[in-house]
Structures are given as structure tokens and as C-alpha cells.
Amino acid sequence: MTISRKTFLRILGGGLVVAAGAAVTVPRLDAMPAAAIEGWRGPGPEEDDPRRRALAWALLAPNPHNLQSWTVDLSRPGTILLHVDAARLLPETDPFSRQILIGHGCFLEILAMAAAAEGYRAEVELFPDGSWTLARPVARVVFTRQPDAAIDPLFAEVPRRRTVKGRFEARALDPAHKAALLAGYRAAVLPLSIADEAGKVDRLRALAIAGSELEMNTARTHKESIAVARIGAAEIAAHRDGISLKGPMIWALRNAGQMTPEKAMTPGTMAWNGGRDYALSGYASARAFGWIASSDNTRATQIAVGRAYVRLQLAATALGVAMQPHSQTLQEYPEMNELRAAIQRETGIPTGATLQMFFRLGYAGDPGPSPRRALKSFVTV
Question: How many Å apart are CA 107 and CA 129, to the nearest integer?
């Protein structure tokens, strides 16, 4: 059975689903499950350990594919050992775990903010057991009581932070917002650039779209995304991670047998075409791009990039500016080498330096929060 575009429009327009010749109205069809986003309310009143309270906020950090690949060891009083969850990696598209480590940097920055809000200083020691491996911690974080700790004003934006994946509004980035983001950026050793000139944006947009299409047309890299796609409210509630696909259209496709992992892997199907159209329409609407570069690509630098990026996104949130990172054209697998070199040239990154983050900026409505697993699922000891 197939569903026509006309039926899709009827579903999207009024919640009207055609099944067995009958019309049925289904309110809030396939909406985001409340349990999957309860973490965005912050720590519950039952949490009295300041480490756990800070962790409840840190878990809201942006991270690749929403894998939430953080695990923490709380066995030592006043201390958090942060590890990478070896079961939550992206070996095909992120073979060196560069993006995963950037996500850990985002986590550590929000953790430090949250500790200060609890009256503690979070002293972060990176790679305390030596060069990072999956068996060794990314960081040791020691909480020291500091009642007069200053609360970072960006911390208030943590529960409001969103990654907008759909279309942006058809308006240019406000020059005042661009200036504010550049002026407020602190990481001088990790240069930030923002481009909003039409010709430059056109060239960057073309490279972003080309990278996205290449990833989708390379079976093993596309499969990596499909493997963590959560199709429909029931799957989202069960996993509370990954790439969430929900709403009336997804409900109709799934119940018609057209939205399955196998269909999403097959070019030309509605599931595959729909995923492509959704991803590329977002980039097609971009009116500005930004990027963060580094002179080296050490593990410590990757952590620092994550800390800088999440601060930038929180500052954008405060201004009402939407952001979405684009990872595809920066990925380090062989088929992407040519496009990755092209985007490095277009962004002016010199040989030997690394384009660490690339993202679009603009304006959009609130898409709602993404799922988060419960705090208890991250604590290993």
C-alpha cells in the first residue's frame, strides 16, 4: 500500500487520516511522549546530591545523533568520572570519535555552569589516567563548595536550548545578532566565523547539501543514522535517544508499511525521499552559516570546541537565534575526503588546521525539546 502526496497534505493540514475508506480525526497524533522530555524540567526534588543535580542539567547538552554517549562514575565522594559509552559511538561517520568528544565538551561546560548554580566549583581535569581510550575517563570533575560562586547568565538558557532541524524563516540574520555573537565569543584560540553574504552562503549551502546527499547515498553511513531512528511515539518513549521521527505523516507512513528501517534505506521510497527532502530543505533555507576552527586536532582541543560551541548556542538562544550543526561534510571517512577538503577551502581553514564545527544560523519557531534518557541510566557506579 502507498500513500499519495495528496493524502499527506490532508494529514498535515487537518489531522485527517484515510483508512479503509473512512475518515477519522485523531488529535495530537503521534506527539512527543511526555516521559521522553521530562528531563528538560531539570533535577527532581528527590535529588539532594549536588553532583546528580548538576548532571541532570548536563544531560541536556547537544550531542551527535542524540546518542547521549556519556556515562558517569559517582563512586568517589564529591567526584564525577566522565567516560564515553562504548555502545554509543558512530564508527562509520565519526571513525575517530572527534564528534563524540565534542559532545563531551558540551556536557562538561553545562556541568560546570550547573555546579556553580548549586554553589560549587567544578574543577575539571581532562584525561586523568592518560591519553584517552574507551577504557579511560574523559575527565575527572571534583566538586568544591563555593557558596559565592557566580551563576553564569547563560545557564538560564539551558532548558530553552533547541537544535532546529527544519526550515528557517526567510529573513536574514540580524546584523546586531551577528555582532553580539561574535563579540560575546570567548574562545580566542578557536576562531569563530559567521558568513551571511549571499554568494558565500550559496557556496557553503551547496557543500552542506552535497555532504548530506553523499552520506545518504553511501549505504553504510546512512545505515548508521537509520539504526538510531526512533519511528513514532512508542519507539521514542522506549529509547529516549537517537533521531526522533513523529507526527501525523510518520504515523500514516508507519501504519501503511512505508516507514520502516528497510524502506528508509532504499532510495526512491517515500521514507527515503521524505528524509532527504526534510534534511535538504533545512539547508536550502539557510541565510547564514558559522564555523569554529582549531590549529590542531588534539582530544583536549575537541573538548574545548564542545565547550565553546554550547556557549555560543546558549548565547544564540538568548538572542532568539536558531542554530543547527552540520556534521556530514566534516566527517572523516574516505568517500567524504574531497568534499571535506572543499569546505575547508571555502571556509578559509589553512592546511594542517581543522574545521571542527559548521552550522547554520537564522530564525525559526520552537521545535520542542529532544528526548533524554533518565539520569539513572547514565550512572555506572
Answer: 19
Distance CA(235)–CA(237), nearest Å, equals: 5
Strand 229-231 relative to strand 322-325, pairing? unpaired
Distance CA 145, CA 136 (A): 27
For residue 61, what is the DSSP state? S
Measured in degrees and rounded to the nearest 5, phi and psi for residue 39 equal -60, -25
Distance CA 291, CA 359 (A): 6
pLDDT in tens, 18-30: 333 333 444 467 8
Supply the pTM of this predicted model: 0.92
Nearest to 371 by CA among 226, 198, 234: 234
The whole-angstrom separation of Cα 131 and Cα 380 is 21
Q: Return the half-sphere exposure (C-beta side, CA atoms, 13 A cut-off) of residue 114.
A: 24
Q: What is the pLDDT of residues 174-200, one digit of tens each?
A: 999 999 999 999 999 999 999 999 999
Grid cell listed for 36? 521522553
Assess contact for 105 and 302: CB atoms under 8 A. Answer: yes
CB 283 within 8 A of CB 212: yes
Q: Is 118 left (phi over 0), alpha (psi -120 to 50) or beta?
A: alpha
Residues 6 or more apart whose Cβ sits within 8 Å of residue 336: 211, 214, 215, 328, 329
Q: Which of 245, 275, 266, 270 is nearest to 256 (CA)?
A: 270
Residue 109 near residue 307 (C-beta atoms within 8 A): yes
CA distance 33 to 254: 17
Looking at every residue in the chain, the average pLDDT score rounds to 92
Supply 358's cell numbers. 559548521
Contact of 232 with 209, CB cutoff 8 Å: no
**Residue 193, H or E segment:** strand 192-195
CA distances from 296 to 45, 108, 291, 301, 326 (A): 43, 20, 15, 7, 20
Whether 318 has a pLDDT exceeding 60, the answer reads yes
Q: Say what the pLDDT of residue 28 is.
A: 65
Q: How many Å apart are CA 151 and CA 371, to the nearest integer? A: 26
